[in-house]
Amino acid sequence: MLRTRVLVLVCALLLSTGATADTVEIDFDFGSSTMNFLGTITIPPDGKINSMSATSILPAAGGEGATSVQTGTAQLKSLMVDMTINYGSPGVARIFGPVIVSQVGTSTGPFTNTHSVMFGGMGTGTGTGTGTALGMSLFVSAHLDCTGLFCVLAGDFPVTIVGTYPPLPGQVFTITLASLNTPGAANVGGTMPIYIPPEYTTGSPFTGTIFLAGTEVSRTYVPEPGSLAQLMPGGVALVALSLRRRRSKGGSQ
Predict the structure, then answer these.
(1) Which residues face 126 on adjacent strands?
(2) pTM for the whole structure
(3) Domains in the chain: how many in total?
(4) 136 near 103, Cβ under 8 Å?
(5) What domain range includes position 192?
(6) What is the distance between the alpha carbons of residues 60 and 23, in angstroms, rounded to a whole number?
(7) φ, ψ (nearest 5 deg) of residue 31
(8) Hey, how many other C-beta atoms are within 10 angstroms of the C-beta on 134?
(9) pLDDT tens digits, 125-142
(10) Residue 11 forms part of a structural domain
(11) Is 248 a member of any domain?
């Protein structure tokens, strides 16, 4: 009976290693990025990115503890931007205030051998012809005010924007990653469009672009649920239990 149980355990472990989808999660700091809004506001210098970060999830190459990646399906999650707008001249028109942008859910796209990932969406999250690409929904919280004689020409202030906004239909953005197989050295670049429909603003759409520039902060190997690393403790326990039962029966005879 022990031999049979061990054989079953070995087969299960071999099957699990043959079907793994282990991943490498890399945390990035995007503090060196820049942004442009409405074609006139560029941050910096028209404000400051206080903090910006995100996590990429890439297919792992190799077995237990792998830190290198391979082609497949990639994901981007936990994008968070905390910035302050400070645009214009005091006494004339100065627009200022905090803006926080956070990703809703996880974006998915194909990861190619050029180490690029395309994300996109049709507004319904059905993809952009790639079959696997999903765009990025964003939660935006912005509170902007204006001071100066010409603020009346700039719009109706104060302006408050709070809400979750789906991807613009047909919206596509691509990020490119480099030095992925060198822990601590990975970096990422790309452009990501921002679009808030006019019904959520003062009558005009709010558009912008984030020019991504990120560097690796940390990385973590994440085994697939049910993979060898996670089955091993249970397998060892099974063998130990079988041995204990066999010895117990042998001692009682």
Answers:
(1) none
(2) 0.75
(3) 1
(4) yes
(5) 25-229
(6) 4
(7) -65, -15
(8) 22
(9) 333 333 345 678 889 899
(10) no
(11) no
